[in-house]
Amino acid sequence: MERSLMILVSTLIYYVTRLSLIALVLVLHIKTDGISNGAIHAEALVSSRPIPKLGSLRNVCITPACICASSSILNNMDPSVDPCDDFHQFVCGNYRKMTNIPDDEETVGGLQKLRELLQIHLRQTLKGNVNPSEPKPFALLKKLYRVCMNETAIELDGLTTAKSILKELGGWPLLGGQKLDREKFDTRSLRVFFDFKVRPGSRNTSRNVIYVFHASSIFFSTYPYHMVVKYLEQLYSFMVDIAVIFGASKEVAEKEFVNVFRLAEKLHYIKKYINCRARFLTSMSELQNTFPTIPWLKYFNLAFNFPDIHDINMVNICPAHIFEVENLLKSTSKGTQANYFMWMTVFKMASHLTKDLRQRRLNYISLLTGQLRRQARWKQCVAVVAQSMPVATGALYVRKYFRRETKRHVMEMVSDIKSEFINILKQADWLDNTTKNLALEKTLAMVSHVAYPDEILLNKNLEVYYEGLNFTSENYLDMRSRLELFERECSAKSLRLPINKTDWTTHAESAVVNAFYTVKENSIQLPAGILQEAFFSIDRPQFMNYGSIGYIIGHEITHAFDNNGMNYDKDGKLSDSSSLSSAIQKFNEKGKCFISQYDNYTIPELQVNLNGLQTLGENIADNGGFRVAYLGYKRWVKRNGKDPRLPILNYTGSQMFWIAAATTLGCSKQRVEYTEYNFYTSDPHPPKKVRVNFPLANTDYFANDFNCPKGSKMNPVDKCRVWK
After folding, report:
1. Residue 21 φ/ψ region, left for φ over 0, alpha for ψ in the -120 to 50 degree band, beta for the rest
2. Is 251 tagged catalytic?
3. Is residue 440 helix, strand or coil?
4. Which segment of the chain is annotated as a signal peptide (predicted)?
5. In 350-503, which residue ranges form alpha helices assigned H by DSSP?
6. Is 11 helix (H, G, I), strand (E, B) or coil?
7. Which of 97, 204, 472, 699 is the 20 to 30 A CA-CA neighbour of 107?
8. 486, 519, 531: which is closest to 505 by C-alpha?
9. DSSP for 570-621?
10. Given a cut of 50, is residue 42 above it in pLDDT?
């Protein structure tokens, strides 16, 4: 009753203070001279909703960043909800109620807004004229963007270049005018039946090897039966339509794609049911001898140009998988294989071809994701440029838009959070001393790549990196083919050289809104693209930064000790320490609590329960990430003193940490189709509501800060924890 009255009082207070809020914003607006690049208007901060606690202007942060943060938090909140009952709804309830998903998106939220801002910045730079004094890679970026934007030329070219590419791959007999070149086809088609990756070895991370994985599948048979039928009907229709657009007879295509369907389905089931935990390192020659009907040597020579190292053990394989695929291909006609290979090739090209093909592709994709409209052409082209030349794109972005002092501040945050994670490890009473020391060594050895490597600020480094890349044609598909060749050449070079885990070229993708933990390097990467706006700002209190980017830092550090990461040592090698077996057993016992907790959550849009095992790694990282980021913030406060408050919001710094964290992670919305797609294609991330509420409910820090009664939903008696 007392908590309900407090919430009611907060609601009433809002109406009394509304005029004061308008006056405050107007004064601050004048003081900041309109706040260029996004002026804050009074109406943006005022809504028809009540707000929670209100405070005076004493010790208040009035920077533009603080005003924006306060406005965003207030507009997102649903203060009628008790934070101890449903914190996600309390922080994000109004956001979900008032926010519409754009027609060209599957989801909307903080990450998407950040990506759009990044795209806008890149567009402003890419559409400019080439400056004769700028480095060659920047000129290549602008040329690629310009050619991509020239839809008139793409329409005039039609399918001419695409058909030439298919002919080079061996030809697509289904089209009538092309005969199958068996030698070309046999060699080049391997890439749709297997996926080849160049990565560090599992036991020896000082050198790269070639991994042979399952190829990506066009089937998602984990959908419920009624959805599978609808999905497969649409997929079949899509496949036939694409073939017809390329010139195939509809009658022939309908007949042939029945066999293609069967092949794709069998490949999917091999991928789904073959256990590939047992992988082995072998040589190209031995691989050829063991599976003789597959032209491995020809493919490796073509893809990596390595005729002189056939006898070196540098191919990591799953024999059971290859055995099944080889047998399947033996029993499948070359015509069916060719139709599958060529269609998969065309599917990957479709988004870069004519408007008709792009629209037909969207019609199919919308079935899976709910996206209603194609993105603006400039957005598509910015994405193409960023994905095709990430090093140069990152350099272009950070030179023009990134505040250099941000890097130093975030590195300080990483240091704080890592120090607290070390303290957590020291307190882990379920680890024996040997295992604990190994864990401490691993954490201390972890490398942090923050924002960008300094090398990308030097033109000479970019020139050397891209010296083998030139665009001699104005044809868009030709340029994309040249980029694919350049990427393969880079992979081939990496096979010949020892690995340098701190090599700047492997950590230069700075124009990215994401963060990573790389298990083979034992490193975290925080690109410049995510260190902006809602996730980080120098001009706002640290509870906002530790709650947002701090949580992400903690999340990535914790991945080093999730159900996958804990199997690797400080150098990124698969650990063979005998002491680990006992620790893993205890870890798995703790993991069962998380599995059970998340298993019991029903996704309301789908009326199905989460798979706690499928999401275990992310759940452990979320729980650890919030906890260690909170402790990192407390460490900062102890060193620097308390933060100033945000305007209007009268919460403690500790409470604001949780509000900031929930806002950053949880205030988003996605289409039901996309929720469905993610769930049935084994997305390792649970829904945002779960990612906020469950980790917070598992920690006493949150319950203490919000005075949540024992036994309330956000302070359950039984909690799941790996780390104290």
Report:
1. alpha
2. no
3. helix
4. none
5. 355-369, 377-388, 390-401, 404-426, 433-445, 459-465, 476-496
6. helix
7. 699
8. 486
9. TTSPBP--TTHHHHHHHHHHHHHHHHHHHHT-EETTTTEE--TTTTHHHHHH
10. no
* 588-607 per-position pLDDT tens digit: 999 999 999 999 999 999 99
Query: Does the global pTM surpass 0.70?
Result: yes
Which residue from 601, 608, 579 is spatially nearest to 691, judged by alpha carbons?
601
Six token digits for residue 475: 């044809």
Q: Where are the domains of the chain?
A: 159-352
H or E stretch covering 98: helix 87-98
Give the integer Cα–Cα distance in Å for 54 and 414.
32
Q: How far apart are CA 493 and CA 304, in angstroms?
A: 8
Catalytic residue among 622, 643, 676, 705: 622
Active-site residue, 556 included: yes
- DSSP-derived letter for residue 333 is -
Q: Which of 324, 556, 562, 676 is catalytic?
A: 556
Which residues on adjacent β-strands are paired with residue 214? Answer: 194
Phi-psi category of residue 211: left, alpha or beta, with phi > 0 → left and psi -120 to 50 → alpha: beta
Please give the structure tokens belonging to residue 115: 């990506």
SS (H, E, C) 610-661: CCCCCCHHHHHHHHHHHHHHHHHHHHHHHHHCCCCECCCECCCHHHHHHHHH
pLDDT one-digit tens code per residue, 322-367: 999 999 999 999 999 999 999 999 999 999 999 999 999 999 999 8
Helix (H, G, I), strand (E, B) or coil at 209: strand
CA distance 264 to 270: 10
Question: 195: exposed, middle or buried (C-beta count within 10 Å: 0-12, 13-18, 19+)?
Answer: middle
53: closest CA among 96, 1, 104, 90?
90
- Give the strand pairing for 194-200 and 208-214: antiparallel
Residues 462, 537: contact at Cβ < 8 Å? no
